[in-house]
Every structure is written in C-alpha cells, then in structure tokens.
Fold:
Amino acid sequence: MQIILVHPRFRQARTIVIGRGTVTTLALALLLALASASGLLSYVMVRHAAGAQLPWLQQWLPQPAPLAADGDERVRHHIDALAVRLGQLQARLARLDALGERLASMAGLPAVDIGAASRVPGRGGPLAAGSRSLTLDELAHAIDRTDSAFERQSDTLDLLESELLYREAAARLVPSTRPLADALVGSAFGARIDPFTGRRVVHEGLDFGAPVGTPILAAAAGVVVYAERHPAYGNQVDIDHGNGLVTRYAHASRLDVTAGEIVKQGQKIAEVGSTGRSTGPHLHFEVRLDGVPKDPLAYLRGGLRGAGAPVAGSCRGAC
Structure:
C-alpha cells in the first residue's frame, strides 16, 4: 500500500510504502491497547466504584437489589403460622382420642392410652406478658411428637375396628335371627306332655306354628351339615355355626339347601310342613351346643310373640 503526501512546503510529493507486515503489526498493537484499557476499566469499576471512591462511575453501574429488611420477620411469621397449625392438629388428635375411648367403651373394650401427647385440653385467655415464638428446634420436636401420637392413634383405631368387625362377624354366627319372619311360638323349650303317648317328656326346642310353604330362614350363618329326611323330624336341616353350635329345623315340606352348602343369616333354607312325627304344619327349631339342647329363646332376639301360647296344629311330641 502506498501513501502520497502533498504539501506546499514540499518540493515534490512524497510517497510512503506500507507493507502487509506493518499493517498487521499496527492492528495487533491496537487490539492490545483496547484490551489493556478494558481491563483497567473493569478493575476500576470492581475495586473502587462500590466503595464510593468514584461516585461519578457508580451512576453508570447497575445497583444490586437491597436485602429485604423484613426477611427475618417473614420467617418468624411463617414459624408462628406453623405453630398455630400444629396446635389445631393436636386439638383434632385429642378429639380422635376421645372418640376412640367412647367407641371402646360402647364395645365393652378397655380404653387404650395412646399417650399424653394427644391429650390437649381446651385453651384460651388473654395473651400472657413475655410470651415468645417457638424456635425451629422446638417446633420440629413438637411436630415429631404429634406425628408419633397420630401413628399410635391410628394403630389403636385399627385395632378397635378389627375387634368390632370380628364381633360383628361372630354375631352373625350366633342364631339370633327368627327362623320364621312372623310366627307365634307354640310349644316352648322344656317339659311337656307328648301328644302321641300322653307321657311327660322334655321338648328340646321351640315350635312355631305357620302355614305350609312358609319360608324357613337360617337363624345364623354357617355350613349345612345335614339336609335329609329323618323318621321323627321329617325333612330336617342342621346348620353348623362353629364352636360346637348347631341349629336344627324340622318337619319341613321342602328343603332348599344341601349338605356342605354355606348359608347366610336370614337365607331361606326350607319351607314349613308337617313331615315326620308331627300333628300339623309347624317348624320345630332347636339350638344345640356340643350336642346338648339349649333353650333357643336365650339366643333369639327380635321380640318373639306369644311365647308359650298354644297354636292349633303345633307339634306336641318329641319332634
């Protein structure tokens, strides 16, 4: 590259020849100077602008956002809110504890103490002087105690539920449902005069007078162990309810179940008739415990009407 210089003081024009090497050297020198200036400016900005040594420069620099003056106050507010919520949970836990004790008492079970952590009585009154907020450690400890109390309460209620379910299932295995929906009791359990022999005998069950075809219902859930015709009992059904407890339904006109069948409480198993050793249509109902006859009235509930009252056509013998 050539540069021609012309001036009145010059007798003739002067020519300057610049080669590629010279241009490259000048460019590098310029870049180095710019880099040095930039570094120096950065140093001045970082070291001195924040310290107010160069206030004129601070106005061109972005100012950091100031820390919130109420940061600690907000944290304290959240802690207090959590503490209030914890108090409400403890109050609910106390109510659950009381409910569990009432349910246990109603079920005849001993009350299970789940710990004093859940026994939070009602509280109130004016704010006491010198009160302070909970620390994080105190709050964490209180939450842990409440969580443990909830777990114990849950276990207690689970046990109570299991016991109540067991009792409900066991109650269904006790012959407490009337074998006939609506029928009078004729002959009661105990001694009486046999209608066929005229002798004094022991009647081992209850007689329910009802028309032929009246549905006979299972007094309790169980397994049918006998469903055949018997010379004295006629069409007979025996249901085993477990623990040696068996109910017997005799003189049926029709059997609706077979041996080995599982029946539910209140399920139809037969129909009233007058088969076997009988003087008329009725149901002879027995309850036996380990083979020994028991008074069915001790098991049945639901207001049997006319206990001991005679019913026309009822069985008067060992039926």
Summary: Confidence is low (pLDDT under 50) at residues 114-121, 302-319.
